[in-house]
Design brief:
The protein has 209 residues and is mostly helical. It folds into 2 domains: 139 residues, no CATH class; 50 residues. It has 8 helices and 2 strands. It has a two-stranded antiparallel sheet with strand order 1-2. Helix 1 crosses helix 6 and helix 7 packs across helix 8. The mean pLDDT is 85.
């Protein structure tokens, strides 16, 4: 056991115990956090439009801010991108997180200075809880990197490759003789898969088990 993994063990146990203890007051803690967020959020454009200054409980918040999709937030996001302040949160975000757009295109998520510790600590605590529950701390001695989705990588690694595969298969099908083609499972599922592209071009594709 190396130095990092040796130190990680007691820190993981301490953090895990603290999180387990916090589970007993989770509802009260969430209510307190909501009220702290409302104190700031009520002064934003979104807060004024939704009457957050009159919201004092979770039930009232649910009525004031019903569940919605990203498209409903787009006008607010656009204002922030144009440089306007105090739209969804006080001031301006420090940057936008760009999602891979798996459901309805690329999305821009504003990341505020206040939210950064939450993102970092949540990821850190997930690893520490894993260490505490499994006893495995060896990976702490190595290098770690967190990777998120990228629309550019998805376009390059899947969609464009699938398109090339589909075109090659169509050309080969037009030639005489039989052919066996093997591709990875990642190229066989979803609307941009090789199978879907061939079907859209009029080919009949049948699964054989």
């Amino acid at each position: 056991m190396k130095f990092k993994s040796f130190l990680a063990k007691p820190f993981a146990s301490y953090t895990y115990a603290k999180i387990r203890k916090g589970m007993g007051t989770a509802l009260q803690d969430q209510d307190s956090i909501l009220k702290d967020l409302l104190k700031v959020g009520k002064s934003t454009e979104f807060g004024r439009e939704h009457g957050l200054d009159k919201v004092n409980s979770y039930e009232e918040f649910k009525k004031a801010v019903p569940i919605r999709d990203y498209e409903s937030f787009k006008p607010y996001i656009q204002k922030i991108k144009e440089g306007k302040h105090n739209i969804l949160w006080k001031g301006m975000p420090i940057y936008f997180a760009k999602t891979s757009g798996t459901t309805s295109g690329v999305k821009y998520i504003p990341i505020s200075k206040e939210s950064i510790p939450n993102h970092i600590n949540t990821a850190r605590n997930a690893l520490l809880c894993y260490m505490a529950e499994t006893g495995n701390t060896d990976f702490a001695d190595g290098k770690m990197i967190f990777l998120s989705g990228s629309p550019e990588l998805r376009e390059a690694l899947l969609k464009r490759r699938n398109l090339n595969w589909a075109r090659w298969i169509q050309r080969r099908m037009a030639a005489p003789g039989s052919v066996f083609v093997a591709v990875g499972a990642g190229h066989l599922a979803g609307p941009d898969s090789v199978v879907s592209m061939l079907q859209r071009d009029g080919y009949r594709v049948r699964r054989i088990q």
